Amino acid sequence: MMFATVRKQLRNHPALIPLFFFIGGGTVMSLMYLGRLALKNPDVCWDRKNNPEPWNKMAPTDQYKFFTVNMDYSKLKKEGPDF
C-alpha cells in the first residue's frame, strides 16, 4: 500500500526521484561505515570468551589509522617533554 502511494507521487512529481536516490545512497553509505567500524575497529570486541582482554593484544608501537601511511614512527624525533 505504501509503495503504491510513493509510486503515484513519483509519477506526479518526477523531481523527487533524485531526492530518494541521494537519501537512499547516503543511508547505504552510512550503514556500510557503521559496519566497518563494528568489524574492523580495534576498540570493538565481539569475542569475549576467546579474547577477554583485547587491549592487551595491541603492542605499544602499533598505530591504528583510517588511512595507511608508509612511515616508521619509532624513528621520529620527539618534540615534547618526557612524563
Structure, explained:
There is one protein chain. The chain has 83 residues and is mainly alpha-helical. The chain has one domain. It is built from two helices and no strands. It is elongated. The model has no long low-confidence stretch (mean pLDDT 80).
Topology:
Elements: H1 2-12, H2 17-40
Short recap of the structure:
This protein has 2 helices and no strands. It is mostly helical. It has one domain.
Oligomer: single chain
Shape: elongated
Count of separate DSSP helical elements: 2
**DSSP strand count:** 0
Mean pLDDT figure: 80
Which class best fits the helix and strand makeup?
A: mainly alpha
Rg of Cα set: 23 Å
User: SSE string, helix = H, strand = E?
Assistant: HH
Terminal CA distance: 66 Å
Quick one: biggest sheet? none
Low-pLDDT segments, ≥5 res = none
Q: State the helical fraction.
A: 40-55%
Compute the number of structural domains.
1
Percent of sequence in beta strands? under 5%
